[in-house]
Amino acid sequence: MIIPVDIHTHRRPQVPGTAIVNCFPESFVPQTEGWYSVGIHPWYIASFAASLNDSKARFEELLDHPQVLAVGEAGLDKLAEAPLTLQIEVFEYQARLAEEADKPLIIHLVKAVDELLKLKQKIRPVKPWIIHGFRGKAALAEEYLRHGFYLSFGEKYQEEALRIMPSERLFIETDESTASVDTLYERAAILRKTPLEELRRTISKNVSEIFFRQ
């Protein structure tokens, strides 16, 4: 079994299984040996809500698929067109499904820190919540860490935030970047003053524990 080194991407990797590919419920067509997350992004909530009953049934069915490792990306985005009240409703729906499915939640977040923290306090999840593509300052990273979040770093981020991350809460992703995941690992290892292979082993252990532990 291949353990993915890239926990969030929108492109199929050249080698199936080396990345967790994010899909919408309607676009999920798994490759042999591939790994996936499936979720309702806040930018596209309107199309999901338009056929709510059919959409929910399809989505919930997919979460039982053995190649779906996570729910998401779910999110809150104050720059999206969908009303924030609807975003919160759909986010909570996905977060509770993640608990039922016993899978981590991958989160897209833009300008909605307070709302996210309130939802975490309300839901009190057992499964990990991972904020993907984290670009905030070190102080915000520390705030999230205090609330039990994991953070995933892509191509763009505040270097000090990456440096202060506890190794057991850290992930690497390509998201929509054209940079290779190997390049991102090399850069992160240099910034953290950690041998590259040690960083790879650490994140591989994190992925195994969070996405593959039953």
From TrEMBL:
Ranges annotated as spanning the membrane: none
Recorded GO CC terms: cytosol
Binding site residues for a divalent metal cation 1: 73, 175
Molecular function (Gene Ontology), one example: metal ion binding
Official protein name in the record: TatD family hydrolase
Record key words, sorted: Metal-binding
Entry binding sites for a divalent metal cation 2: 108, 132
PANTHER family per UniProt: D-AMINOACYL-TRNA DEACYLASE (PTHR46124:SF2)
Keyword Metal-binding among record annotations: yes
Keyword hit for Membrane: no
